[in-house]
Amino acid sequence: MIPKEVLKKIRRIEITTSKLVTDILAGQYESVFKGRGIEFDEVREYQPGDEIRTIDWNVTARMGRPFVKKYVEERQLTVMILLDASRSSYFGTSKRYKNELAAEVSAVLAFAAIQNNDRVGLIIFTDRIEKFIPPRKGPQHVLRVVREALYFKPKGKGTDIAGALKYMEGVTTRRAVTFIISDFFAADFKKPLSIASKKHDVVAITITDPRELELPDAGLIEVTDAEKGSFFLLDTSSAKVRERYASRAHAMIEARKKLFNSIDVDHIEIRTDKSYIEEFIKFFKKRERRV
Q1: Tell me: the pLDDT tens digits for 73-87?
Q2: Chosen CATH of 4-34+77-207+266-290 out of 3.40.50.360, 3.30.70.890, 2.60.120.590, 3.40.50.410
Q3: What's the sign of the alpha-carbon dihedral 264, 280, 159, 210?
Q4: Best label site of 58, 158, 160, 236, fewest CB within 10 Å?
Q5: Phi, psi (5° rounding) for residue 204?
Q6: List of residues 6+ apart from 119 with CB closer than 8 A
Q7: CA distances from 75 to 47, 72, 117, 122 (A)
Q8: Mind listing the pLDDT tens digit for each residue in 101-145?
């Protein structure tokens, strides 16, 4: 039984995200993602003007005359949402926790997909695969995706992005628009992410809390590694400590950006203390210029 407060939250997110999708993102989503893929339709005889590269040499050799492969624009997309539910996502010092923001962003993407008659699926992962919802269409299905994104209680603590990508390859038979929602504070995912991006249209959505970038002057505080369970004390009254923390944090953020850029993976940076709407609009406008 889902608690009443969760049901209320699902309903609130349904209303707010549906309006956001309808008023702001629907047209941009369609123009950016629709028609970017093609799929095989049939083989027919060669006609003057056909491109040589479309010739199906196996059929041509068998029939004794030239045949070409015909492709059609793929109008119906498969959208996969890979949602990081590791312990580091249960953190927030501003308007909401990172996992709450991730759930809301998942809802926005799911509603945008359904509104455009696309299939949407969900993979919730930690250091293991926690939940898989196969891609389907329809309003009831999208509400299930939103409910699981909000309510699911993971068993794992760590983050295995590489494992989630490998699992997706096993359950996704066709090209998919793939959104990975995570803080990406994990290791050894560059190669599998690069491989996935060659087959799928992959977009990384990074979620960061302001306290992950800098510390306040709050004296002696206990800092816990949520995924490993270890903790240590930090004297935040020391300016050097705060500077060292900020420098290391910003270096990690820059390394994350460079990784995405090095393998041509688009990314959207959102924060728990700021609206994500503007970041999505900027992303869509940037993608529109490339289409």
Answers
A1: 555 789 999 999 999
A2: 3.40.50.410
A3: positive
A4: 58
A5: -95, 130
A6: 76, 77, 78, 79, 113, 135, 136, 137
A7: 26, 9, 9, 21
A8: 999 899 888 888 888 888 999 999 999 999 999 999 988 898 889
